[in-house]
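Lecture 7 notes: from sequence to structure.
We start with the chain below.
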Amino acid sequence: MTGGTELPTEERPAPAPTTETTAPGPSTGTSVAARPTAAPALALPEPALDEIRLEAVLHALADPVRLRIVGELAAGHSEMSCIAFGLPVTKSTSTHHFRVLREAGVIRQHRRGTARMSALRREDLAALFPGLLDSVLAAVRPPAGPPPA
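Predicted structure tokens for the same chain:
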């Protein structure tokens, strides 16, 4: 380290994506412009199945906004863009809620163009905690049919 300007390893920014150059163009013999190589999947970080913890899932489901997100995903939408939820919070707060759900293992997110698509990890949660998600969703949904007399 010289003069204290170098960051410790864990604080260094990630390296820039690598670039690749394609073969010469068909008619001109010049190479096509270099482009960044993208990861095959644009999935955002999430815990593996064996890393999902009950306390993290319960914490994620304890907030009404996050419960609303999970409820909408469970209502038959295989995946939804974050903006499609119409949440009554600011964009930064919305981002926080999605991150908590993703890091707890409740949802899976990936980028599609400029949108972040979210999907419920229903099978993973059912394998680890049978009946938990269905019980939580049933408790917050109003019962079907007429109100009791």
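Points to note: The radius of gyration is 22 Å. Residues 91-104 form the longest helix (14 residues).
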